[in-house]
Design goal:
heterodimer, A: about 400 residues, mainly alpha, Cytochrome-c3 Hydrogenase, chain B, 3-stranded antiparallel β-sheet, about 50% helix, about 10% strand, globular, B: Beta Polymerase, domain 2, 5-stranded mixed β-sheet, two-stranded parallel ribbon, about 25% strand
Chain lengths: ~400, ~180
Amino acid sequence: MSDQTQVNAIPTDLLTLNIGPSHPATHGTLRIQVQLDGETIVNSGCEIGYLHRGYEKQCETVFYQIVIPYAERLNYMGPVHNSNAWCHACELLLGIEIPARAQALRVITSEMGRIIDHCVCIGTNLVDIGALTNFWYMYNYREKIYDLYEELCGARMMVNYPRIGGVSLDAPDGWLEKVKRTIDEMAEAVGDVQKLVERNRIFMDRTIGVGAISRELALSHGVTGPCLRAAGVAHDLRKAQPYWGYEKYKFEIPTAEHGDTYDRTIVRFQEMYESCKIIHQAIDSIPGGPVMVSDHLVALPAKDKVYNTMEGLINHFKLIMHGIQPPPGEIYSATEGGNGEIGFYIVSDGGPKPWRVRIRPPCFANYSVFPKVIQGQMVADAIAALGSINIIAGELDR
Amino acid sequence: MTEREIMDRVTARLGSRVLATYEFRGQCAVTIRPADLRELLAWLRDDPDTNLEWLIDVGGVDYLGYAPGGHDDDDREWRFEVAYQLYSMSKNHRFRVKVAVKETECEVPSIWDMWGMANWMEREVWDLFGIKFAGHPNLRRIMCHDDFQGHALRKDYPINKRQKLTVPAENLLCEKVEWA
């Protein structure tokens, strides 16, 4: 017997490996099971639900306005967008339009949220691949955006800023200028990071062709957001079905071709520049006026009215104790979050609490392709792909 | 097309097989029986005018005790609905198809072979509402653990109910992996 036949005669089994649900490389309670032949993934499967906290059930038991801070806990990477989106859904249900200044403030805060979402995604993904420097650059500017949120409304991460019918506070003096300055500095820093990785031999070898989501697979699985655009589909709800006056702003939809980890990272870089453009335009064209609707069935009265008039006091009391009561009906509202389409399907029975809140999280759809795209690749490739799909366990499991 | 036009086309095609139509704030939906689901979704997807090629979401609703506006005049003869949100990227319009599910039957045909995403979405509806999807290859719980009793999003499942694990936690590690 030759050496090779002897080697071939050794019986081999596939090795089953369990990654997670508690594993530093998964950034959340995700569990991936793989069967390995050497280091190559032959079979893979995902179990989810480790962070299931009965979110939708809880929403049925509280008033519409109390869901606002809950909504931010869905995606804790760019939280402001989710609460903005929830308020948008409630406004659709109520049939009200918010003032133009509130719309612009929502656009600004949402785009800032998208930027920090991408900062965290790119930063941590690069750490997983072995590049630590970029992480500090990215997190540095994430902190600066947190500082801006803090100046706007007092909270940094979970800001609870929007309200049904507008936003809670107007921007303080000089805040908008400061946002512009910070965004400009940030675009420079993001450019530096991009230069560090874009043509980096190691990064390219680790990411090109890794975890590629094809166009067909993406459409079949309802993949949205940067993962879809990286697969070559120029779809963005901000363009396709604009809300909050997005149709007024000029921006591009960055796309790529192959849908692999490299493409997703580059698309995210470009989206950050586009967000900066949108923020600049929104600040330059921001109109004056109120930031809340004047409808007394939706908006709390001004504090001086509450303290000095009987009607104001009763109005305040009614809204706090009996809540906002939309008419019976059902709506589906979709907006473009950092990771794709975040949808709220609300069924109302006319009471102050939603009858049913169904959340369509982008991550749920995006993650369902993951076991398919890592087949035939190495374990380390799976980690690189996972980071670039950017799975947020909070909205995956709800 | 507006959602109204799509709804009119669906009612023209299905006739009396449409159990209810629905319009609110410009959004439209039809409610149909489970038996008509696959036919209707395939038609909406393949018809060049509607071209609703994208399944966005599948979600259940439990109407047990639903009293819109405080009046008990809801005329649904079924307890559950499963809502399919469809979207057409080429036409840029949306539509919602709802399936009426009676408590006694509690079964809907699966569409996992039409859209890959329906696989997990249907598992979630099964887990939280107890609605079975006939033909689904792997209808296991997805959010709650395998030992969980009942279906958490049903209206008769109390929100404060706690369950004690009857089996050791290590036995709950799912060995029935669904290989992709």
